[in-house]
Amino acid sequence: MRDENCIFCKIIAGEIPSKTIYEDEDFKVILDANPASKGHALILPKEHFANIYEISEEMLSKAARLAKRLAEHMTKVLECDGLNLLQNNGEVAGQTVFHFHMHLIPRYEGMKNKDLLNWTHEDFTEEEQEEICQKLRNC
Ligand code: 5GP
Ligand code: ZN
């Protein structure tokens, strides 16, 4: 349920202050303390799941529905021009807090941090792509 060493569990319990923008029985949504843009928010399930591998399908579905509602609301209220929904799993993927969360990052035309998600592409041959494709089928 809760991890005693987890900073997001402490935020959810109100032991560490946060700028809360939404709360219900399953989620708390807070502003990110180091925002990538104006309104950068984090959807936190109240139950402690480390990542996408641990979270239940039910909670993930609820988080996705909430993300849609928030995205629409944020876009209207903040008048942003787009929005990134981002969710990191594992240190190698950039996860720094090991309590499942979704980032909602409003994007604005001409914003300072416009390159925040830019990556360079890797090259794979047609054969390699086919092999990867075969491996990934049959989910
Ligand atoms: P991750 O890199 O794990 O996907 O994202 C963790 C996010 O949590 C980071 O963007 C970081 O700024 C934010 N964060 C870390 N500690 C705190 C905190 O104590 N309060 C708030 N509001 N955000 C935090
Ligand atoms: Zn936690």
Give the integer mean of the pLDDT values.
96
Using the alpha-carbon principal axes, give the shape.
globular
**Small molecules held by this entry:** guanosine-5'-monophosphate, zinc ion
Derived structural class: alpha+beta
What is the alpha-carbon Rg in Å? 17 Å
Give the strand order of the largest sheet, numbering strands 1, 2, ... along the chain: 1-2-3-5-4
Q: Biggest sheet: strands, sense, closure?
A: 5 strands, antiparallel
List the main descriptive attributes of the protein structure presented here.
alpha+beta, binds zinc ion, globular, 5-stranded antiparallel sheet, binds guanosine-5'-monophosphate, 139 residues
Concise overview:
With 139 residues, the chain is of the alpha+beta class. The chain is 28% helix and 18% strand. Guanosine-5'-monophosphate binds next to strand 2.
What does the model show?
This protein has helices spanning 7-12, 57-78, 126-136; strands at residues 20-23, 27-31, 41-45, 82-86, 102-107. With 139 residues, the protein is of the alpha+beta class. It has a 5-stranded antiparallel sheet with strand order 1-2-3-5-4, covered by helices on one side. The longest helix is centred in the middle third of the chain and has 22 residues, at 57-78.
Task: Please specify the SSE layout and strand pairing.
Blueprint lengths: L6 H6 L7 E4 L3 E5 L9 E5 L11 H22 L3 E5 L15 E6 L18 H11 L3
Antiparallel strand pairs: 1-2, 2-3, 3-5, 4-5
